[in-house]
Amino acid sequence: MTDRFILSAILLIPAVAAILIAFLARFPNLRDGLGLIAAFALTIMVWCLLPGVMAGDRPQLILFDILPHVPLAFRIEPLGMVFAALASLLWIISTIYSIGYMRGNKEAHQGRFFALFAVALFAVMGVAMASNLLTLFIFYEVLTLSTYPLVTHKGDANSMRSGRVYFGVLIGASIGLFLPAIIWTYSLTGTLDFQSGGILDGHIAGPALGLMLGLYVFGVAKAAVMPFHKWLPAAMVAPTPVSALLHAVAVVKAGVFTITKVIILIFGYDFLFNSGMGSWLVPVAAFTIIAASLVALQQTNLKRMLAYSTISQLSYIVMATAILAPLSQIAAILHIVAHAFGKITLFFAAGSIYTASKKTEITQLNGIGLRMPITMGAFAIGALSMIGVPPTAGFVSKWYLLSGAFAVENYIAIGTVVLSTALNAGYFLPIIFRAFFRAEDVPPPLDHKEANVPIRIALIATSLLVLVFFVFNGPVIDLVMPIVEMRP
Amino acid sequence: MLAAQFPVFPVIIPLLSAPLAALMPNRLLAWLLALAVSLVVFVTAIFLAISVYDGTIISYAVGGWVAPYGIEVRIDAFSALMLLVVSGASTLALLTAKPSIDQDIAADRQPLFYAAWLLALAAYGGIAVAGDAFNIFVFMEISSLASYVLIANGPHRGALPATFKYLVMGTVGASFYLIGVGLVYMMTGTLNLADLSQRLMNAPHLHPVMLAAAFVTIGLALKAAIFPLHVWMPNAYAKAPSAVAVFLAASATKVMLYVLFRFDFLVFGGALALHDLHFASFLMPLALLAMIIGSAVAMREQNIKRMMGYSSVAQLGYILLGATLLSTAGLTAAVVHMFNHAMIKGGLFLAIAALVVRIGGADLKAFEGAGRRMPWTMAGFVFLGMSLVGVPLTAGFISKWVLVEAALEQGALGVALIVAILISSLMAVVYIWRVVEVAYFRAPADDLPPPREAPLVMLIPLWGMVGLNIYFGLDPHIPMELAGHAAQILMEHAK
User: Fold this and answer.
1) A180 and B409: CB-CB below 8 Å?
2) Contacts B386 to A, Cβ<8 Å
3) Which domain holds residue B315?
4) Is the ipTM, as predicted for this complex, more than 0.95?
């Protein structure tokens, strides 16, 4: 009974918050206060479930059948727990940050912005808790639809163009590839439930299996595996808080989370490994990692560079899952968390720079570290985590990824990680160097210091999380161990 | 006692009220009468649907003369579903018609207009419940004549050539149908559909029957606007008064498809060996072409009503595709989509009617800035558009799902069909999104009067349709159950 209550609350809090925010749009303080309360309430509810799930509970909420044997239903298993806990916690921080950013930049339509933000979180919670593929797909699409107006928030010609790419790629791939894969699965097995060990074993074999995996991996375009990545740089026209929470954490992680979940709980680990039909995914993800890093090297716009870095980092997670080794599986989940902390920090920093100085290009950043030490300090921590230097979160996941790759002797993966680490260093370190050790060539048109207080609070919070996760990652590993240990 | 007479209500009540409407002294009373009658028919349809929900078939002998000699009114799950669609569409359209009809049609002509409307309603309902081929023809003629009047009342001169085109094509279609019916009557001496399918099995010669099948199928395909016989349809909807478009777009062509399925599956399917295969191999390519070409034309169309007309061509393709799969699953998908598409297209035309009332035109250009000027109406349009595309949580999604699932049963051919379904869906995304971008991203011209939302009498039913689309997207049991029975009835001859 209480499980049902908590699960309903997790879905209802952001949904109700969205409606109330829309109605209170004209009272900024009330509206933003309400958003913050909703974020805290959601986080408390989600984290309430954590001890139970760690002890082996699987709370569930089954509403009604949409199709025979396919209900609209929710069930919390460890993967979803990690994702929901992560997204709700970061919602608090990014709400604080958004308040500072939206007010600092005097953005228009703030009511609509915060309401849709809450809708997006509602969708994320649905994706995280879905107990079958259809439920997941429904919320996956709600997430696309609710973020489209956030991407096109400015409403000018440029954001309309970008919105077209965003919407076209995400909806096109999900209707054209993801949905057929789901229906195919349903017609083969008669169910869409996520089950440990998968549901496809014995129903499909040979190249068809590889094809189905392809439909899932590319159909879930939110994971931005090349060539379905173009929407992510396009989404950077959105206000920075959207890029930070949604396009570095919630939306993209919904993508890799879906792929991970499909591989473990629909295909089944052993089944895919023994069939050998999943092996093509490692080189494809490796290509995305390297290619996206090479593109990132050439970017001059800070947010676009971060976007390409995200594409590269997402494929780390896809590759870690595709290695199909227990340790790399842990790495995939750890990296979902580690990259989230690191990348949200980097985006917060980019938004902080923009709010204080209106600068968007990397070449403009000479000497900015002296004016904005907190921002650039946080940026440095986030960047080190991307490269994977201790004592940051990124080191931990890379460690497990390499361990897993060595265990099954997957040299493509090992080579990719080494090369990509060098590339990451190649595009992050120069920015840090530029910010702290180069003198300002010309005094900026705007004499500025740090950005406003809410932005600083958010930056400090997330960069601390990056550091803390280096030490305190045990709970996540404990949580996912039961899924990973399925394999003999 | 009264309940026993329910099966004929959908025909006689509007038929008898039509002259009354013509005699009404002013437009308000005429409208109220039409709305009340339509509502009564709708409620009757709901009752009938409930009583056949478990698969029973109601047979009503008109005047007490038993079939096959007398006239039989026959209501099964399929006809009940069609009655729901027809009377629901008519009620929705009439409920919201007042503002747009007052704009489109002169006050003194309105009582006659509503009389024609009631005749159309009686006739479409009659086609749905009639148990014999000749009465179907009679009602088809009444419905056509009434529809010509309704469409010709359109606000612009373009309505007349559009009506004329419809009239010529419609007459050709009805004549073909009549020739076909004449041929089977010649071979069997009966017109009752159930009786026909029995007697045709013992027909002495099969060539006249085959010829009849060809005439009936093509004649009905013309009336159902099956590609490439659809050319009358987009203009007829675009030039008609907005409220008429709501009614006809949701129901007219579907009723004709209904008759087509009845004949091809029940009458000819049982009598002619391989008829099913001929039917499928003839119509499946047309269905696919309709899906792709209809959507492609809609993508380039500059007038929103015509865009929706071509979208209907594509959507009828989905329905036909489901039927040509020749399986219970396929027919279920087809019938469910008849129901869902009626809700979607009725709603979309209603949104357009509301926009036209305030904006004045249906050209895409006139919709610039509509997202800001009429936020609620446009939001309703977007939701229904998503249902048309087949986004989850909407009725359209259920349609696509069952259709794709039915196609998957067909093996390799099914995969090719699914590709076509998905391409057509993505094309629907494009044309709906063209409207969205114009409405939300283009600034309205400066010289426009201050923005005003659509009248509540249109807005509330519009959101009612959005709600229904979401409800049936979440819980499709009712249409699925009715469609399942309908599919079983249609597939019975195959056993």
Assistant:
1) no
2) 145
3) 274-495
4) no
